[in-house]
Amino acid sequence: MIASSKRSPLTYLVHATVLFLVVIWTIPTAGLFISSIRDKDQLSVSGWWTALSTSEQRIVDRANGPSAQAQEGDLFVIRGNLLTNSSAKVTKFGFSSLEPEAFSAGDLAEMRKGQTLQVMPNGDYALSSPTEWKGSRGQRIFYTAEVPPRFTLDNYREVLSAEGLGQSFLNSLTVTIPATIIPILVAAFAAYALAWMRFPGRALLVAAVVGLLVVPLQMSLIPLLKSYNLIGEFFGVGSKTYVGIWLAHTGFGLPLAIYLLRNYIAGLPGEIIESARVDGASDFDIFRKIILPLSFPALASFAIFQFLWVWNDLLIAMVFLGNNEEHLVLTGQLRELLGSRGGNWEILTASAFITIIVPLCVFFSLQRYLVRGLLAGSVK
Amino acid sequence: MADVKLTHVKKIYSNKVEVLKDINLDIKKGEFIVFVGPSGCGKSTLLRMISGLEEISAGTLEIDGQVVNDIPPALRGIAMVFQSYALYPHMSVYDNMAFSLQIAKVSKESIDQQVRKAAEMLQLTPYLDRLPKALSGGQRQRVAIGRAIVRRPKVFLFDEPLSNLDAALRVATRMEIANLKDTMPDSTMIYVTHDQVEAMTLADRIVLLSAGNIEQVGSPLELYEHPANVFVAKFIGSPAMNVVPCRIEKTGEQTHVSLSSSITVETPIVTEASEQAKAAFFGVRPEDLLVVATEAEGFLSGKVTFVESLGEATLLYLTVPGCEDMIIAKQAGTLKTQRGDTVHLSALPEKMHLFDDKEVSYRR
Amino acid sequence: MAQLASALVTMLLGVLGCAVYFYGSNVLLDKVFPTKSGPAQKVARNLRISNTIRPWLFLGPAVLLLTFYLFYPVIDSIRLSFFDRSGDEFVGISNYVWLFNSDEFFESFRNNMLWLIVVPTAATFFGLIIATMTDRIWWGNIAKSLIFMPMAISFIGASVIWKFIYDFRSGDDAQIGLLNAIVVFFGGEPQNWITIPFWNNFFLMIILIWIQTGFAMVILSAALRGIPDETIEAAVLDGANGVQIFFKIMVPQIWGTIAVVWTTITILVLKVFDIVLAMTNGQWDTQVLANQMFDWMFRGGGDFGRGAVVAIVIMVLVIPIMIWNIKRANAEMEGR
């Protein structure tokens, strides 16, 4: 913009500040993603930022019981391996909870009555005793293992099957797609009428749409819930149906849709519409053949908006679709998990990432249209 | 037969603003009519009322002897070329031209034939598959005209079609429109512009509008030579006619007027005796003023305050004692006259104009 | 699979039904009152009739939906606020009396005010700063895209993300929440952030600021680009420095847009509900109006009267913005 301001120290400051802000803004999401693909044992004991470094774990285990002993020469020996994960490495071990790191791996630890314990770095251990091992339980072994980073999709596998997220994913799609398309159709027609047709009450309707733009939708919930119960009774179906939630999302999305689209359609050159009129086109022809193709950017941007909004919505889904398993959408499922599995971060992070992956893809691939739509609504 | 007849036509907006007041106009079949006037005079509104895009508040509009006030645009037998061309940006040139016929459910072969014929005529055949955005300004303009032609209208309406073109293209397109008119002698054309050169060069008759009224209707030369009032006199011609207040000193076959205490002019304009001593306006076009050598040869003298050399002509701006406004004289070629010089001017008597105190011309 | 199929069928039916209505009704209108041919007088009459009917064919569904889903509920909420928990018995203003005597209400009202002050201000401020800075660097668009990204994340998803950041482990366990890890790294005591009364509100607000800054940034960035370069160049020639240019030349020219951004976020804040529900459900003094209303709707079978009263309060708070919006839209209409 200003030639002289290039390459000044200020510019580097700007670069640094923006970088800092970008890092702050992305880190939460990045943390979630990295955590969701970590091994669940590691996830719960170390921060996700350590995911790439080897972690040290202190573990208590029991050796095999006396039934596994074998006589080797004049010693009774119990052999086994402590590690389930082959790439881990035992560094220290001990046999008492007071001194869990008393010996380095490979050392021979003297226990009572001539008994010895030896743990090798690869986890192989040998308990030997001059007398026969007695009792039913195995000796406790304390050891410290270095576990290399481990990434896995197990968390996703688990939430998609066991936690019912797959079903919720389908439910979310079933809710979202019609709840995106129907308001676009309804709003586009209304927006054209409000922009280019002449009829009494037009200004009043535009004002009403703008007014309804800010009505908190919580206002609507109680009366609508009552109405839905009545209607559901009348038709002999439950009050919580897909049609019900589609229409609810349509109704709530309409003010913004009409407002955005009207702004855009009213901004189309009037002479094109007049020209079509002189060419003999009726309003319906004009709408189908001129307005719809020319409004594509605005329609696309509203579609993205509505898609994100419906997909991410929790409130309307909870009220109009309910909490029962077969209708639960992703956001609802995530909230349930947050309540029931609040401490199980491997489940929460993977579930959260599944709920946000679709909107993120939509967002990054269609960002251009989204921005355009935002601008059509706000900067005038 | 495609006469257009307007009788007592008015346009009043809902806020009681009268944009057009009592318009009466007879347009003959095959005429090229130009509506001209300053911006806001209502010329575009008048055109849009003829097209059917604006409602007619009062009066009747007849096309071909049929009252069409309530008939939709498409059934009036008109076609319109818009200022911005109004091409459908998402359709190819072909589809743009075919649109009206498709709406009218004309058969495919017939559409194809008419579109290709129009494209041929306008040299648009190589561009039929292109989108409007891939065309130059002049080509877009031709597509807009082509779109009008395929409808075979009785009346063509042009709404300032050249104002979006640059100067060179404007001249070329002007000639094309003139040619188009020649090839379709039976079509009536109504053309709106604010540019008097376009009006003068294209029109059979000019309709000059101002503030919702028709000031004068006539051929271009009629308007130039015999302006009906001061407004027309000043609007047609560039630079505008010099019009100065004066007093009628002597009436009769030859009217004598005084521009100031020292300047009296004799004009071959007839006035009634009752006009004696009335205030009036004297007018003479800058290009009708001639620089003469001596004061005796001329009828007014002034000091040059400003000189504009245009090459093909020179404009002299004079302060004349007793006259408030500057007098402009346009002389062919270049002159040596400099600021501060005193020059003497004469004019042929028949080139002089005289308007009464209501700014209406005394007819000769 | 069966569910997928039935979902597809219902989806198609819903969308088709909508399309069929618009197409059918308009074609029918053209059939009943043909305007494309016929004797002139009849066409003129038909045209008048269809021009009167058609706007309502276009607007019909929208008007019905808006009335049923927004207009009628507003009216009915006002009515319900004077009725008892089931909405059957008129109880006068006792719901209002209850509301203004309830500590919970004042807690949520105070919190809502805090949200209303902090979130729009912070989001607009960060948005403006980031918009200004990203316009000057070559990788600005990438930066913008990343900061804009949280817009796509649901409130509930964002809550999980931030709950993870605020996570707290007692004792000597390693902190897996980033915030506590940083605190520990610098030698501080780890805290259970979302349970610290009063300050926990701010930890919840950060989530919404994180989401909304991108929105503010995108819009303000476009507004900043709309500022004519000449005005800035003139200021440079007049000897203004960067800060002066920003505050005295650029910001005044985009006041209108800043106001729009501010009000848009304000409205959103009034409706904020998911974040509080997911993070604390109003515990530890973090209740807000929207969540309180939701609570009353469903707590113990639901108390519609009290829920409606809280809704009315939210509505009253929105009204000034509504009026301002309508005025602005009217001014815009006249400008056309």
UniProtKB/TrEMBL annotation, chain A:
Membrane topology label: Multi-pass membrane protein
ABC transmembrane type-1 domain ranges (all copies): 169-366
Biological process annotations from GO: transmembrane transport
Pfam families cross-referenced by the UniProt entry: BPD_transp_1 (PF00528)
Entry-linked PROSITE patterns: ABC_TM1 (PS50928)
Alphabetical UniProt keywords: Cell membrane, Membrane, Transmembrane, Transmembrane helix, Transport
Superkingdom, natural source: Bacteria
Transmembrane region(s): 12-34, 175-196, 203-222, 242-261, 290-311, 347-366
Main location class: membrane
InterPro entries in the cross-refs: MetI-like (IPR000515), MetI-like_sf (IPR035906)
GO cellular component terms, semicolon-separated: plasma membrane
Protein family per UniProt: Belongs to the binding-protein-dependent transport system permease family.
Protein name: Maltose ABC transporter membrane protein /trehalose ABC transporter membrane protein /sucrose ABC transporter membrane protein
Organism encoding this protein: Marinomonas alcarazii
Source organism phylogeny: Bacteria, Pseudomonadati, Pseudomonadota, Gammaproteobacteria, Oceanospirillales
From TrEMBL, chain B:
Keywords: ATP-binding, Nucleotide-binding, Sugar transport, Transport
Superkingdom classification of source: Bacteria
Single GO term (MF): ABC-type maltose transporter activity
Keyword Transport carried by entry: yes
SUPFAM superfamilies: MOP-like, P-loop containing nucleoside triphosphate hydrolases
Listed name of the protein: Maltose ABC transporter ATP-binding protein /trehalose ABC transporter ATP-binding protein /sucrose ABC transporter ATP-binding protein
Provenance organism: Marinomonas alcarazii
Keyword Transport: yes
Coiled-coil ranges per UniProt: none
Boundaries of every ABC transporter domain copy: 4-236
GO terms for cellular component: ATP-binding cassette (ABC) transporter complex, substrate-binding subunit-containing; maltose transport complex
InterPro entries: AAA+_ATPase, ABC_transporter-like_ATP-bd, ABC_transporter-like_CS, ABC_transpr_MalK-like, ABC_transpr_MalK/UgpC-like, Mo/tungstate-bd_C_term_dom, NA-bd_OB-fold, P-loop_NTPase
Pfam families xref list: ABC_tran, TOBE_2
UniProtKB/TrEMBL annotation, chain C:
Source superkingdom: Bacteria
Domain ABC transmembrane type-1: 109-325
TM spans (from-to): 6-24, 56-75, 113-134, 146-165, 202-224, 245-270, 304-326
InterPro entries in the record: MetI-like (IPR000515), MetI-like_sf (IPR035906), UgpAE/MalFG_permease (IPR050809)
Keyword tags: Cell membrane, Membrane, Transmembrane, Transmembrane helix, Transport
One GO CC annotation: plasma membrane
One of the GO biological process terms: transmembrane transport
Pfam family, one: BPD_transp_1
Location relative to the cell: Cell membrane
Membrane topology annotation: Multi-pass membrane protein
Family the UniProt entry places it in: Belongs to the binding-protein-dependent transport system permease family.
Record-given protein name: Maltose ABC transporter membrane protein /trehalose ABC transporter membrane protein /sucrose ABC transporter membrane protein
Organism: Marinomonas alcarazii
